[in-house]
Amino acid sequence: MKTSYASSVIIFYTTTFAFSALYTPQPLLPMMRAEFGVSESTASLLVTATLLPLGFAPIIYGFLLQSFTARRLIMVSVSIIMASELGIFFSNSFPFILLMRLIQGLCIPAVLTSLMTYLSTMSNVHNIQRIMSLYVAGTIIGGYFGRLLSGLVATCFGWRYSFLAIFFALLFNLVLLRWLKSDPIVAFNRLRLGAIPDILKVNGFLRVYLVIFFSFFTFASVLNFLPFRLTEIGGQLSELRISTIYTGYLTGFIAAVFSARIINLIGGEARTVVAALSFYLLSMLFFLTDSTHLTFANMFLFCTGMFLVHSVMPGLINRHAGNKRGVVNGLYISCYYAGGTLGSYLPGLVYKHYGWSAYVYVLSAVVVLALGISSRLSRSEFVLSD
User: Fold this and answer.
1) Which of 54, 128, 50 has the alpha carbon at shortest distance from 85?
2) 124 Cβ contact list (under 8 Å, min separation 6)
3) Which of 35, 199, 363, 375 is deepest in the core (most CB within 10 A)?
4) What structural domains and CATH numbers belong to the chain?
5) For helices 70-90 and 94-121, angle between their N-to-C axes, nearest 10 degrees
6) pLDDT tens digits for 30-48?
7) Interatomic CA distance for residues 223 and 351, integer angstroms
8) How far apart are CA 67 and CA 185, in angstroms?
9) Residues 315-334: what's their mean pLDDT?
Protein backbone atom coordinates (compact mmCIF):
# COMPACT_ATOMS: atom_id res chain seq x y z
CA MET A 1 0.00 0.00 0.00
CA LYS A 2 1.36 3.44 -0.87
CA THR A 3 0.69 6.87 0.56
CA SER A 4 -0.89 9.29 -1.91
CA TYR A 5 0.63 12.67 -2.76
CA ALA A 6 -2.12 14.47 -0.78
CA SER A 7 -1.54 12.23 2.25
CA SER A 8 2.20 12.87 2.04
CA VAL A 9 1.62 16.65 2.08
CA ILE A 10 -0.73 16.39 5.08
CA ILE A 11 1.72 14.17 6.96
CA PHE A 12 4.58 16.55 6.22
CA TYR A 13 2.53 19.55 7.39
CA THR A 14 1.46 17.74 10.57
CA THR A 15 5.02 16.72 11.37
CA THR A 16 6.28 20.25 10.72
CA PHE A 17 3.86 21.97 13.07
CA ALA A 18 4.03 19.31 15.78
CA PHE A 19 7.73 20.15 16.01
CA SER A 20 7.05 23.87 15.66
CA ALA A 21 4.82 23.65 18.74
CA LEU A 22 7.48 21.69 20.59
CA TYR A 23 10.26 24.25 20.10
CA THR A 24 8.37 27.56 19.95
CA PRO A 25 9.71 28.88 23.31
CA GLN A 26 13.40 28.15 22.69
CA PRO A 27 14.45 31.49 21.10
CA LEU A 28 12.15 33.28 23.56
CA LEU A 29 13.82 31.96 26.73
CA PRO A 30 15.88 35.10 27.50
CA MET A 31 12.80 37.31 26.99
CA MET A 32 10.52 35.10 29.09
CA ARG A 33 13.19 34.78 31.78
CA ALA A 34 13.26 38.58 32.07
CA GLU A 35 9.47 38.98 32.06
CA PHE A 36 8.80 36.38 34.75
CA GLY A 37 11.95 37.08 36.78
CA VAL A 38 13.28 33.52 36.78
CA SER A 39 16.76 31.99 36.31
CA GLU A 40 18.13 30.50 33.10
CA SER A 41 17.64 26.94 34.34
CA THR A 42 14.07 27.70 35.43
CA ALA A 43 13.26 29.34 32.09
CA SER A 44 14.68 26.29 30.29
CA LEU A 45 11.98 24.21 31.98
CA LEU A 46 9.58 25.58 29.35
CA VAL A 47 11.30 23.18 26.95
CA THR A 48 12.13 20.48 29.51
CA ALA A 49 8.49 20.27 30.66
CA THR A 50 7.41 19.39 27.12
CA LEU A 51 10.26 16.98 26.46
CA LEU A 52 9.71 15.12 29.77
CA PRO A 53 6.52 13.22 28.82
CA LEU A 54 8.05 12.38 25.44
CA GLY A 55 10.44 10.12 27.33
CA PHE A 56 7.73 7.61 28.29
CA ALA A 57 4.43 8.48 26.57
CA PRO A 58 5.38 7.06 23.13
CA ILE A 59 5.55 3.56 24.64
CA ILE A 60 1.94 3.91 25.80
CA TYR A 61 0.84 5.19 22.39
CA GLY A 62 2.68 2.31 20.75
CA PHE A 63 0.32 -0.04 22.57
CA LEU A 64 -2.75 2.12 21.89
CA LEU A 65 -2.08 1.91 18.17
CA GLN A 66 -3.05 -1.75 18.37
CA SER A 67 -6.62 -0.67 19.14
CA PHE A 68 -7.03 2.76 17.50
CA THR A 69 -6.11 4.17 14.13
CA ALA A 70 -3.14 6.52 13.91
CA ARG A 71 -5.35 9.16 12.23
CA ARG A 72 -7.74 9.29 15.18
CA LEU A 73 -4.92 9.70 17.72
CA ILE A 74 -3.36 12.46 15.64
CA MET A 75 -6.61 14.47 15.38
CA VAL A 76 -7.39 14.28 19.10
CA SER A 77 -3.81 15.21 20.03
CA VAL A 78 -3.65 18.19 17.65
CA SER A 79 -6.91 19.51 19.12
CA ILE A 80 -5.51 19.41 22.66
CA ILE A 81 -2.24 21.07 21.60
CA MET A 82 -4.27 23.87 19.98
CA ALA A 83 -6.17 24.49 23.21
CA SER A 84 -2.94 24.63 25.22
CA GLU A 85 -1.40 27.16 22.80
CA LEU A 86 -4.39 29.40 23.38
CA GLY A 87 -4.02 28.92 27.15
CA ILE A 88 -0.40 30.11 27.01
CA PHE A 89 -1.38 33.17 24.96
CA PHE A 90 -3.81 34.38 27.65
CA SER A 91 -1.76 33.37 30.71
CA ASN A 92 0.22 35.65 33.05
CA SER A 93 1.36 32.78 35.26
CA PHE A 94 4.67 31.00 34.69
CA PRO A 95 3.52 27.83 36.54
CA PHE A 96 0.36 27.71 34.39
CA ILE A 97 2.44 28.06 31.22
CA LEU A 98 4.62 25.18 32.45
CA LEU A 99 1.45 23.12 32.94
CA MET A 100 0.31 23.87 29.39
CA ARG A 101 3.73 22.89 28.08
CA LEU A 102 3.52 19.64 30.07
CA ILE A 103 0.14 18.89 28.46
CA GLN A 104 1.69 19.52 25.04
CA GLY A 105 4.41 17.05 25.95
CA LEU A 106 1.77 14.41 26.60
CA CYS A 107 0.12 15.00 23.21
CA ILE A 108 3.05 15.56 20.84
CA PRO A 109 4.37 11.97 21.23
CA ALA A 110 0.92 10.70 20.24
CA VAL A 111 1.30 12.63 16.99
CA LEU A 112 4.89 11.49 16.39
CA THR A 113 4.40 7.81 17.22
CA SER A 114 1.20 7.72 15.17
CA LEU A 115 2.89 9.35 12.18
CA MET A 116 5.85 6.96 12.26
CA THR A 117 3.53 3.96 12.55
CA TYR A 118 1.17 5.30 9.86
CA LEU A 119 4.08 5.71 7.46
CA SER A 120 5.60 2.31 8.25
CA THR A 121 2.30 0.48 7.72
CA MET A 122 1.52 2.35 4.49
CA SER A 123 4.99 1.62 3.10
CA ASN A 124 6.86 -1.51 2.08
CA VAL A 125 10.28 -2.85 2.98
CA HIS A 126 11.82 -1.44 -0.20
CA ASN A 127 10.90 2.22 0.29
CA ILE A 128 10.70 2.46 4.09
CA GLN A 129 14.17 4.05 4.46
CA ARG A 130 13.23 6.79 1.98
CA ILE A 131 9.81 7.36 3.61
CA MET A 132 11.29 7.55 7.11
CA SER A 133 13.99 9.94 5.90
CA LEU A 134 11.28 12.24 4.53
CA TYR A 135 9.51 12.06 7.89
CA VAL A 136 12.74 13.09 9.62
CA ALA A 137 13.08 15.92 7.09
CA GLY A 138 9.65 17.15 8.21
CA THR A 139 10.76 17.12 11.84
CA ILE A 140 13.83 19.17 10.90
CA ILE A 141 11.83 21.78 8.98
CA GLY A 142 9.37 21.96 11.89
CA GLY A 143 12.15 22.46 14.42
CA TYR A 144 13.70 25.23 12.36
CA PHE A 145 10.49 26.92 11.23
CA GLY A 146 8.99 26.87 14.75
CA ARG A 147 12.01 28.67 16.18
CA LEU A 148 12.29 31.13 13.31
CA LEU A 149 8.56 31.91 13.34
CA SER A 150 8.50 32.45 17.10
CA GLY A 151 11.55 34.72 16.94
CA LEU A 152 10.09 36.78 14.10
CA VAL A 153 6.63 37.11 15.64
CA ALA A 154 8.04 37.88 19.11
CA THR A 155 10.30 40.61 17.74
CA CYS A 156 7.38 42.26 15.92
CA PHE A 157 4.46 41.70 18.31
CA GLY A 158 5.69 40.13 21.58
CA TRP A 159 6.30 36.56 22.71
CA ARG A 160 2.62 35.71 23.34
CA TYR A 161 1.74 36.07 19.67
CA SER A 162 4.26 33.36 18.78
CA PHE A 163 2.01 30.85 20.52
CA LEU A 164 -1.07 32.34 18.87
CA ALA A 165 0.54 31.88 15.44
CA ILE A 166 1.08 28.17 16.17
CA PHE A 167 -2.57 27.92 17.29
CA PHE A 168 -3.80 29.09 13.87
CA ALA A 169 -1.33 26.84 12.04
CA LEU A 170 -2.66 23.84 13.99
CA LEU A 171 -6.25 24.89 13.35
CA PHE A 172 -5.57 24.65 9.63
CA ASN A 173 -3.79 21.34 10.29
CA LEU A 174 -6.96 19.96 11.90
CA VAL A 175 -8.92 20.85 8.76
CA LEU A 176 -6.35 19.09 6.57
CA LEU A 177 -6.42 15.94 8.69
CA ARG A 178 -10.06 15.38 7.77
CA TRP A 179 -8.82 14.53 4.26
CA LEU A 180 -6.13 12.13 5.46
CA LYS A 181 -6.98 8.58 4.47
CA SER A 182 -7.71 6.56 7.58
CA ASP A 183 -5.21 3.79 8.16
CA PRO A 184 -6.43 0.35 9.19
CA ILE A 185 -5.96 -0.65 12.80
CA VAL A 186 -2.45 -2.03 12.65
CA ALA A 187 -2.29 -5.81 12.54
CA PHE A 188 0.41 -6.13 15.18
CA ASN A 189 0.48 -9.06 17.54
CA ARG A 190 -0.89 -8.30 20.97
CA LEU A 191 2.06 -7.15 23.03
CA ARG A 192 2.71 -7.45 26.71
CA LEU A 193 4.71 -4.94 28.73
CA GLY A 194 7.24 -7.76 28.84
CA ALA A 195 7.78 -7.19 25.11
CA ILE A 196 9.72 -4.02 25.91
CA PRO A 197 12.64 -5.76 27.69
CA ASP A 198 12.50 -8.43 24.97
CA ILE A 199 13.18 -5.71 22.40
CA LEU A 200 15.87 -4.11 24.55
CA LYS A 201 17.65 -7.48 24.88
CA VAL A 202 18.33 -7.41 21.14
CA ASN A 203 21.78 -5.85 20.84
CA GLY A 204 21.06 -3.96 17.61
CA PHE A 205 17.96 -2.22 18.94
CA LEU A 206 19.57 -1.44 22.30
CA ARG A 207 22.58 0.15 20.64
CA VAL A 208 20.38 2.27 18.35
CA TYR A 209 18.37 3.46 21.36
CA LEU A 210 21.52 4.33 23.34
CA VAL A 211 23.12 6.16 20.42
CA ILE A 212 20.02 8.27 19.77
CA PHE A 213 19.65 8.93 23.53
CA PHE A 214 23.19 10.33 23.85
CA SER A 215 23.04 12.13 20.51
CA PHE A 216 19.86 14.02 21.32
CA PHE A 217 21.00 14.60 24.92
CA THR A 218 23.79 16.70 23.43
CA PHE A 219 21.71 18.31 20.69
CA ALA A 220 18.83 19.37 22.94
CA SER A 221 21.24 20.79 25.48
CA VAL A 222 23.16 22.95 23.02
CA LEU A 223 19.99 24.28 21.42
CA ASN A 224 18.44 25.06 24.79
CA PHE A 225 21.39 26.96 26.28
CA LEU A 226 22.78 28.52 23.12
CA PRO A 227 20.41 31.55 23.36
CA PHE A 228 21.90 32.36 26.78
CA ARG A 229 25.43 31.87 25.43
CA LEU A 230 24.69 34.22 22.51
CA THR A 231 23.46 36.97 24.83
CA GLU A 232 26.60 36.39 26.92
CA ILE A 233 29.06 36.87 24.02
CA GLY A 234 26.95 39.03 21.68
CA GLY A 235 25.18 41.43 24.04
CA GLN A 236 21.47 42.21 23.76
CA LEU A 237 20.31 40.31 20.68
CA SER A 238 16.71 40.36 19.44
CA GLU A 239 14.64 37.19 19.44
CA LEU A 240 14.80 37.18 15.64
CA ARG A 241 18.63 37.36 15.70
CA ILE A 242 18.73 34.50 18.19
CA SER A 243 16.31 32.40 16.14
CA THR A 244 18.48 32.73 13.01
CA ILE A 245 21.19 30.68 14.75
CA TYR A 246 19.00 27.66 14.03
CA THR A 247 19.42 28.14 10.28
CA GLY A 248 21.88 25.27 10.48
CA TYR A 249 18.80 23.05 10.56
CA LEU A 250 18.60 23.48 6.78
CA THR A 251 21.74 21.41 6.22
CA GLY A 252 20.17 18.79 8.48
CA PHE A 253 17.18 18.77 6.14
CA ILE A 254 19.47 18.16 3.16
CA ALA A 255 21.26 15.37 5.03
CA ALA A 256 17.91 13.70 5.77
CA VAL A 257 16.59 13.97 2.22
CA PHE A 258 19.78 12.52 0.73
CA SER A 259 20.47 10.05 3.54
CA ALA A 260 19.75 7.00 1.34
CA ARG A 261 22.36 8.14 -1.19
CA ILE A 262 24.82 8.95 1.59
CA ILE A 263 24.32 5.47 3.05
CA ASN A 264 25.08 3.90 -0.33
CA LEU A 265 28.11 6.15 -0.79
CA ILE A 266 29.62 5.40 2.64
CA GLY A 267 28.72 1.69 2.55
CA GLY A 268 25.86 0.97 4.95
CA GLU A 269 23.89 2.40 7.85
CA ALA A 270 26.39 1.51 10.59
CA ARG A 271 29.30 3.20 8.80
CA THR A 272 27.13 6.24 8.07
CA VAL A 273 26.23 6.62 11.75
CA VAL A 274 29.91 6.38 12.78
CA ALA A 275 30.91 8.97 10.16
CA ALA A 276 28.07 11.31 11.19
CA LEU A 277 28.96 11.09 14.89
CA SER A 278 32.62 11.77 14.12
CA PHE A 279 31.50 14.91 12.27
CA TYR A 280 29.22 15.74 15.21
CA LEU A 281 32.09 15.46 17.70
CA LEU A 282 34.31 17.74 15.63
CA SER A 283 31.59 20.41 15.52
CA MET A 284 31.28 20.35 19.32
CA LEU A 285 34.82 21.69 19.71
CA PHE A 286 34.01 24.75 17.58
CA PHE A 287 31.46 25.83 20.20
CA LEU A 288 34.42 26.85 22.38
CA THR A 289 34.69 30.03 20.29
CA ASP A 290 33.69 33.47 21.59
CA SER A 291 32.58 34.56 18.11
CA THR A 292 28.86 34.72 17.31
CA HIS A 293 29.68 34.46 13.60
CA LEU A 294 31.70 31.27 14.01
CA THR A 295 29.01 29.87 16.28
CA PHE A 296 26.45 30.58 13.57
CA ALA A 297 28.60 28.82 10.93
CA ASN A 298 29.28 25.87 13.22
CA MET A 299 25.56 25.18 13.59
CA PHE A 300 25.55 23.96 9.98
CA LEU A 301 28.18 21.32 10.84
CA PHE A 302 26.50 20.44 14.13
CA CYS A 303 23.03 19.93 12.64
CA THR A 304 24.36 17.94 9.68
CA GLY A 305 25.97 15.38 12.00
CA MET A 306 22.96 15.05 14.28
CA PHE A 307 20.30 14.78 11.61
CA LEU A 308 22.23 12.34 9.49
CA VAL A 309 22.27 10.02 12.52
CA HIS A 310 18.56 10.62 13.12
CA SER A 311 17.60 10.08 9.47
CA VAL A 312 19.32 6.68 9.34
CA MET A 313 18.06 5.18 12.60
CA PRO A 314 14.24 5.01 12.06
CA GLY A 315 14.53 3.23 8.72
CA LEU A 316 17.08 0.80 10.19
CA ILE A 317 14.91 -0.30 13.11
CA ASN A 318 11.64 -0.38 11.14
CA ARG A 319 13.17 -2.71 8.57
CA HIS A 320 13.81 -5.23 11.36
CA ALA A 321 10.81 -4.51 13.61
CA GLY A 322 8.39 -6.98 11.99
CA ASN A 323 4.97 -6.91 13.66
CA LYS A 324 6.26 -4.91 16.63
CA ARG A 325 6.65 -1.60 14.83
CA GLY A 326 4.31 0.32 17.13
CA VAL A 327 6.32 -0.41 20.27
CA VAL A 328 9.71 -0.33 18.48
CA ASN A 329 8.89 3.18 17.21
CA GLY A 330 7.54 4.17 20.61
CA LEU A 331 10.76 3.06 22.29
CA TYR A 332 12.82 4.95 19.73
CA ILE A 333 10.95 8.21 20.35
CA SER A 334 11.03 7.58 24.11
CA CYS A 335 14.81 7.16 24.14
CA TYR A 336 15.22 10.15 21.83
CA TYR A 337 13.26 12.47 24.09
CA ALA A 338 14.44 10.98 27.37
CA GLY A 339 17.89 12.07 26.21
CA GLY A 340 16.51 15.46 25.22
CA THR A 341 14.76 15.91 28.56
CA LEU A 342 17.89 15.29 30.61
CA GLY A 343 20.07 17.20 28.16
CA SER A 344 17.85 20.28 28.21
CA TYR A 345 18.42 20.73 31.95
CA LEU A 346 21.30 18.79 33.57
CA PRO A 347 24.26 20.13 31.51
CA GLY A 348 22.96 23.61 32.27
CA LEU A 349 24.10 23.07 35.85
CA VAL A 350 27.64 22.54 34.56
CA TYR A 351 27.31 25.73 32.51
CA LYS A 352 26.05 27.66 35.55
CA HIS A 353 28.75 26.51 38.00
CA TYR A 354 31.80 25.85 35.80
CA GLY A 355 31.32 27.90 32.64
CA TRP A 356 30.79 27.31 28.95
CA SER A 357 34.08 25.52 28.22
CA ALA A 358 33.45 22.85 30.87
CA TYR A 359 29.92 22.50 29.52
CA VAL A 360 31.22 21.86 25.97
CA TYR A 361 33.81 19.31 27.17
CA VAL A 362 31.17 17.35 29.12
CA LEU A 363 28.89 17.17 26.08
CA SER A 364 31.81 16.17 23.87
CA ALA A 365 32.44 13.23 26.20
CA VAL A 366 28.79 12.18 25.76
CA VAL A 367 29.25 12.20 21.96
CA VAL A 368 32.40 10.07 22.34
CA LEU A 369 30.30 7.55 24.27
CA ALA A 370 27.69 7.46 21.47
CA LEU A 371 30.46 7.05 18.92
CA GLY A 372 31.89 4.06 20.80
CA ILE A 373 28.50 2.34 20.91
CA SER A 374 27.74 3.01 17.24
CA SER A 375 31.04 1.46 16.15
CA ARG A 376 29.65 -1.94 17.18
CA LEU A 377 26.42 -1.75 15.18
CA SER A 378 25.76 -4.51 12.62
CA ARG A 379 22.70 -5.82 10.77
CA SER A 380 23.09 -9.33 12.20
CA GLU A 381 22.20 -8.04 15.66
CA PHE A 382 18.61 -7.12 14.71
CA VAL A 383 16.73 -10.37 15.33
CA LEU A 384 13.36 -10.16 17.08
CA SER A 385 11.40 -13.23 18.15
CA ASP A 386 7.65 -13.35 17.61
Assistant:
1) 50
2) 1
3) 363
4) 5-178+190-378 (1.20.1250.20)
5) 160
6) 889 889 988 888 888 898 8
7) 13
8) 6
9) 74
